[in-house]
Fold this protein.
Amino acid sequence: MNWLLDLTPDEWNAVRLSIKVATVAMIASLPPGILIALVLARGQFWGKTLLNGLVHLPLILPPVVIGYLLLLSFGRRGPAGAFLAEHFGIVFSFRWTGAALACAVMGFPLMVRAIRLSIEAVDGRIEAAAGTLGANPLWVFGTITLPLILPGLITGAILSFAKAMGEFGATITFVSNIPNETQTLPSAIYTFTQVPGGDAGALRLTLISIVISMAALVASEVLARRVGKRMDIE
Amino acid sequence: MTVVVDISHRLGDLALDVRFRSAGRLTALFGPSGSGKTTLINVIAGLIRPEKGRIEADGRVLVDTDAGLFVQKHKRRIGMVFQDARLFPHMSVASNLRYGRWFTPTAERYADIDAVVDLLGIGPLLDRRPAKLSGGEKQRVAIGRALLASPRLLLMDEPLASLDEARKAEILPYIERLRDETKIPIVYVSHSVSEVARLASDIVVLAQGKVAACGPTGAIMQRLDLLPAEERGEGGAVLDTAVLRHDEVFGMTVLGSAAGEIRVPHLATPVGAPVRIRIRARDVMIATEQPTSLSALNILPGTIVAIAPGQGPTVEIGIDCNGATVLARITEQSRQTLKLRLGRKVYAVIKTVSFDPANMSAGLPVEADG
């Protein structure tokens, strides 16, 4: 067991960085994820199919393509990247924030799908009842819709987190593989497999990433079940 | 408090074109399914935006399509009790009840939570989740939830339709108390003659999206032709009476009405209290001279004022008994045998045992403030 936890500082950094990147990616995609899911579940507008397709692109395209597109748009010279760097001082290229962005984009379709399904399952008549009691649409969303879709939110968030833990192609294309800055677990494993005698390190990190992903999934199961039980919906 | 409705709206096959005004304490929107009752009440609640028209409640204009005015549902302060309760599944009963309070301006909160809980008998349910309630309990909580938002008007959309007879009997007295003990005017949607006859002060009869008749309950219930075919057997005169005395020897109660004394099975109502009775037309016999040697206890003298053909071999006869009209449904053969015609003096005969809890209820108290 000892050899498993006996990580080098660089390996520890990869673990920590992966968790940080995945957590930030998950939290940052929640608000837009809820908004887009709401629009797709409830909205009736021209171009809905287009929006739906756009959201699902990362699921269909090769990750390398997404990474390259991010590089083009959010890189130093990209239009969005230059704008954000100039006005807000936010830089993505070759930073861990870029890894988080890549992970968020790749996990976004999974999150939106889960949330959208739970929004579609909410009985609109219950929301209408809240309206007749004096709650404006914002209050209805906050006090009725949001609590009712909580299990879906949890599932969506965990899926996004798990996807981020495993993201490789888009991340390495966008922000490369810099130890202590953009080298997440998959990148670190990849690096180990490329050098002679790296097998032990690759195996260690592989096991660790299995443990983290499983823990996240189990935690979401337990959480979602507890929330479901508390609500006691027939 | 007056409700004024004048709207046109098309929804699928239904062309709703309704105009009425009611100042009643409990106005029933009555009609068969598909007549537009539920659409109409949803329009009043603000859940449906009418294509054209105007709605006014308590002097406040809620909808006026000509002026481009449409008050959003959350700003109407109109409470709604739905057929399917629609309680919030993620909240306890207590939180459900308190929900509307948050959104009511403090100055306009008149509903008191303890009083409402007491009125509806839901004290023991407060900590429970809606999923753990019976149908009748859910409906009582839904009524309480609507009341605690301190509405200016309370709408009830077939609140008893999804309940069995026992649950209905459990809730009806609460709705009567609501009608008699609170000042909130109620608009009540129903397709059941017995509910409407029991609860309503005024009735708006809807048929195929139009108002077929509109007026006080007593007057509307005279019109058996307004009732849907399957409910016609339940139709009959509705009389508002008061308890005169109790006959302890035979276990009966004597009610005083304009038509005379009426003996019914014993009621627990105190002397002087109002009681509303519905005398089903099919329970009334007609005699041309004062019957003797007859088991029926209620024999009311009167004059025939209306004769209308009924369904199949029947005719419906209206008998004016000292100002109160009693309806009788008899066969055309009997009518000819007895030579019944308008203006003839007759006796309406009603068996005491034809009264049961379904056609006797707490009456509306005499209006003190109009």
Remarks:
- Chain B has two domains: 3-221, 237-362.
